[in-house]
Amino acid sequence: MTNDLDRWAANLAVAPSDRPLDRLEAEIGRDIAQRRRDARVLKALTPVRLGAVGLALAMGVTAGSAAAMAAMRMPHPSGVFAVAQLAPSTLLEGAR
User: Fold this and answer.
1) What angle do CA 36, 37, 41 make, to 5 degrees?
2) d(CA 27, CA 34)
3) Treating both helix axes as pointing N-terminal to C-terminal, what angle do 24-44 and 46-73 enclose, rounded to 10 degrees?
4) Does residue 75 sit in helix, strand or coil?
5) Which residue of 18, 64, 78, 96 is surrounded by the most CB atoms within 10 Å?
6) How far apart are CA 47 and CA 8, in angstroms?
7) Which spans in 2-45 are helix H?
């Protein structure tokens, strides 16, 4: 195993690089600058994101409470045969 590793390292040392390394430092500098710009944009958009989450939460609470109030106002069938509306044949046919 060690012999294979030594041979692979020697082959790698004599192989040409797959890209020119003279522009590597400039590419790294551009990448760092881009990441800093992205971080500033994300930081600037934080209030917008929080507002969107708050709005979605408010809409969900409003819609959920309206649905709950509507469900509470509906008359519930009572009696011996009230469970018959949950029979598979009734549910599959879509009849109510």
Assistant:
1) 115
2) 10
3) 40
4) coil
5) 64
6) 53
7) 2-14, 24-44
The domain locations on the chain are 22-93
Q: How does pLDDT run along the chain (96 residues), one tens digit per residue?
A: 567 888 999 888 888 887 788 888 999 999 999 999 999 999 999 999 999 999 999 999 999 999 988 878 877 666 666 666 667 766 676 655
> Tokens 């430092």 identify what position?
25
Q: Is the pTM of this model over 0.90?
A: no
Backbone φ and ψ for 77, nearest 5 degrees, come out as: -65, 140
Site of tokens 């060690």 = 2
